[in-house]
Amino acid sequence: MLKKIDHIGIAVHSIAEARRFYEETLGLVCEKVEEVVSQKVRTAFFSLGETHIELLEPMDDSSPIAGFLKKRGEGFHHIAYESDDLLMQLDTARQQDCRLINEQPVPGAGGKQIAFLHPGSTGGVLTEICEPSKQ
Ligand code: ZN
After folding, report:
1. Alpha carbon of 109 to ligand 1 centroid (Å)
2. How far is it, in rounded angstroms, from Cα 14 to Cα 32?
3. Helix spans in 39-85 (H)
4. What's the CA-to-centroid distance between 55 and ligand 1, angstroms?
5. Fewer CB within 10 Å, N or C, the chain?
6. Per-residue pLDDT tens over the stretch 118-127
7. Ligand 1 mean position to 76 CA, how many Å?
């Protein structure tokens, strides 16, 4: 079952530059900057109530974020829902003929398990489902 919107992902060329808007203009606090090697992406998380803003910066040119920036430029990248059962959520998506980017969960930021659903099946919105680690 989905629990909440966990975060909204925003693609940026540089976290160092982009964070100024979130910190100084919006007054949000950066919780952590973390590299997610499986996605070749550097992330910065800002808390906002139960939800977070996740800035995504490519670690190199082969990163999916590098491709996104080249095609679409900086801006909204994905929405992430928290689930208490990611595998069940993926099964349901499969049964509904939803195209999955990750057939199986992969490690995401903050020790979470994550999987992406293809925007071609979600009305154009890249959709992440994440499950917090149970330890
Ligand atoms: Zn995300």
Report:
1. 8
2. 15
3. 64-72
4. 9
5. C
6. 999 999 999 9
7. 11
CATH of the domain at 99: 3.10.180.10
How far is it, in rounded angstroms, from Cα 75 to Cα 96?
29
CA pair distance 59, 80, nearest whole angstrom: 21
Between β-strands 2-11 and 75-83, what pairing exists: parallel, antiparallel or unpaired?
A: antiparallel
pTM of the model: 0.92
C-alpha 95 – ligand 1 centre gap (Å): 24
CB neighbour class for 60 (10 Å; exposed up to 12, middle 13-18, buried from 19): exposed
Centre of ligand 1 from the C-alpha of residue 74, in Å: 15
**Which residue type occupies 133?**
S
Structural domain count, the chain: 1
Residue owning tokens 């003929």: 97
